[in-house]
Specification:
- The chain is an alpha+beta fold and 191 residues long.
- The protein has helices spanning 5-8, 12-19, 25-38, 44-51, 95-109, 115-128, 134-143, 147-162, 167-180, 186-190, and strands spanning 55-57, 63-67, 72-74, 81-82, 89-90.
- The protein has a five-stranded antiparallel sheet.
- A hairpin with a 5-residue loop joins strand 1 (55-57) and strand 2.
- Helix 4 runs antiparallel to helix 5, helix 6 (115-128) runs parallel beside helix 8 (147-162) and helix 7 (134-143) runs antiparallel to helix 8.
- The longest helix is centred in the C-terminal third of the chain and has 16 residues, at 147-162.
- The protein starts with a helix and ends with a helix.
């Protein structure tokens, strides 16, 4: 029996993805947080599948992405169709798990090669990323080259900064909102 190095010893990403199939909701949430810490965009499809009720657990205890239209099981990281050990069981996903997963999913999507995916992620984080998303948003803004995505990230940072204890940060956020002309943020500014 010959095992490849990757099969013989899974890395942190593979371990976190495997944790999504854990029987405990707490362990699933821990795995989601670990995916956020790792910040590897390769994990967003499996996290998206978890949130969309498409993630299954094989008889081997490993997670697989289920494609209902084709009845295919896919490897959660490579997305290659695999012959997963049956039966495949649905993973129950509570609203608590979805609440933990939503900002991590948006964070991971910020690393996508697709500008449309990054834009959607920036808009998601601007609506509910919270104060803990600030560093992530700044990091994404620093590396972003697409103008529409940069504007969305800038507004996301401004929304977070409106909640800041710093008066300077709040004033700067208002100036950004004024400059970009986004009325959607008016209600936040009025609070």
């Amino acid at each position: 029996l010959v095992l490849s190095a990757s099969a013989a010893h899974a890395g942190p990403l593979e371990d976190a993805v495997a944790g999504l199939a854990a029987p405990s909701e707490e362990k699933v949430e821990d795995a989601i947080r670990q995916l956020g810490t790792l910040d590897d965009a390769r994990a967003w499809p499996v996290l998206d599948a978890l949130c969309d009720d498409r993630l299954r657990v094989g008889a081997d205890g490993k997670p697989y992405i289920w494609e209902a239209k084709t009845h295919d099981a896919k490897d959660p990281l490579t997305l290659a169709v695999v012959n997963a050990p049956r039966p495949l069981k649905e993973i129950d996903v509570s609203n608590d798990i979805r609440r933990v997963a939503a900002p991590v999913l948006a964070q991971l999507r910020l690393g996508s090669p697709s500008a449309a995916e990054r834009l959607a992620a920036a808009e998601e984080l601007s609506k509910g990323g919270g104060a803990d998303a600030t560093a992530l948003l700044h990091k994404a803004l620093d590396r972003e080259h697409d103008a529409k995505v940069r504007d969305a990230l800038t507004l996301a940072v401004a929304r977070v900064d409106l909640q800041s204890a710093s008066a300077d940060a709040r004033v700067a956020a208002l100036q950004i909102i004024k400059k970009l002309g986004n009325d959607e943020f008016l209600s936040d500014a009025q609070r």
